[in-house]
């Protein structure tokens, strides 16, 4: 069998290169990959204060998806914050922490008002002696708006405050959703309350006022017996005594 000429080999190679190039330009699809950015849940901004009245960024909390209880927290440690916390702990101050929806998520929620901040605090000495490790519980409603924030530490305040070498900040996060309880029947409740109020305002009744309907027939029966049993008077008066 004769071997192909060089010209035919070059032509075949060019054809294969053109086919591979067309395949490389085709759009690709991702199956089971990372979630798109649009499906990501809202992001909350964490800010803290060290007793001077001003708040500075601490990190962010991001829900995995809208309506989810699973979230991730991102925080960046700052050595200057650890020094401020130590100074605040020395004077017995409180470490303040607040959370709010990010600006973009606030707009997506359709709110034109300013961001609503939910604030909490913990003794600075307890947070410092816990090496800036805390547990956070974020309460949100059905629209992912923050309702409450709790912070707790594993170590309480001790009598002696010793300076520590803190190199990182760590938080255990838990997201909970507020559940709406059963709605009471307002009209029935108001009617029952009005009835109880009217009963309480009535003056107490005496014995005769309460039981007159039972005593009246007895009284009439006794009266009629007395009238029917009275002796009738004679025409000549009483008889003379026998001698």
Query: What would you report as the Rg, rounded to the nearest angstrom?
Result: 45 Å
Question: What sequence of helices (H) and strands (E) makes up the elements?
Answer: HEEEHEHEHEEEHH
**Residue ranges: pLDDT <50 for 5 or more in a row?**
19-36, 234-243
Q: What value does the average pLDDT take?
A: 77
Shape: elongated
Q: How much of the polypeptide forms β-strand, as a percent range?
A: 15-25%
The CA-CA distance between the termini, in Å, is 186 Å
Overall structural class, as computed from helix and strand content, comes to alpha+beta
Number of strands: 8
Describe the structure.
- The chain has 243 residues and is α+β, with helices and mostly antiparallel strands.
- It is 33% helix and 23% strand.
- It is built from 6 helices and 8 strands, in the order αβββαβαβαβββαα.
- A 5-stranded antiparallel sheet has the order 3-2-1-4-5. The protein has a 3-stranded mixed sheet with strand order 7-6-8, with no helix packed on it.
- The longest helix has 22 residues.
Topology readout:
Layout: H1 6-24, E1 43-49, E2 56-63, E3 71-75, H2 79-90, E4 94-101, H3 103-108, E5 118-123, H4 124-129, E6 133-140, E7 146-152, E8 170-177, H5 186-201, H6 207-228
Parallel strand pairs: 6-8
Antiparallel strand pairs: 1-2, 1-4, 2-3, 4-5, 6-7
Offer a quick outline of the entry:
The protein contains 6 helices and 8 strands; from the N terminus they run αβββαβαβαβββαα.
């Amino acid at each position: 069998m004769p071997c192909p000429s060089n010209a035919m080999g070059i032509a075949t190679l060019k054809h294969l290169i053109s086919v591979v190039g067309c395949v490389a330009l085709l759009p690709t699809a991702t199956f089971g990959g990372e979630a798109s950015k649009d499906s990501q849940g809202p992001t909350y901004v964490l800010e803290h204060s060290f007793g001077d009245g001003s708040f500075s960024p601490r990190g962010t909390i991001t829900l995995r998806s809208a309506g989810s209880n699973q979230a991730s927290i991102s925080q960046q440690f700052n050595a200057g914050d650890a020094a401020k916390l130590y100074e605040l702990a020395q004077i017995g101050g409180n470490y303040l922490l607040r959370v709010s929806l990010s600006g973009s998520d606030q707009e997506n929620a359709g709110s034109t008002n300013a961001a609503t901040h939910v604030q909490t605090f913990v003794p600075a000495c307890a947070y410092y002696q816990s090496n800036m490790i805390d547990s956070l519980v974020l309460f949100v409603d059905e629209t992912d708006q923050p309702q409450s924030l709790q912070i707790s530490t594993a170590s309480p305040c001790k009598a002696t405050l010793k300076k520590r070498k803190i190199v990182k900040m760590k938080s255990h996060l838990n997201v909970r959703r507020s559940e709406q309880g059963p709605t009471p029947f307002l009209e029935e409740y108001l009617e029952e309350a009005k009835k109880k109020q009217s009963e309480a305002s009535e003056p107490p009744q005496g014995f005769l006022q309460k039981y007159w309907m039972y005593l009246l027939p007895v009284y009439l029966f006794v009266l009629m017996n007395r009238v029917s049993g009275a002796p009738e008077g004679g025409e000549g008066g009483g008889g003379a005594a026998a001698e």
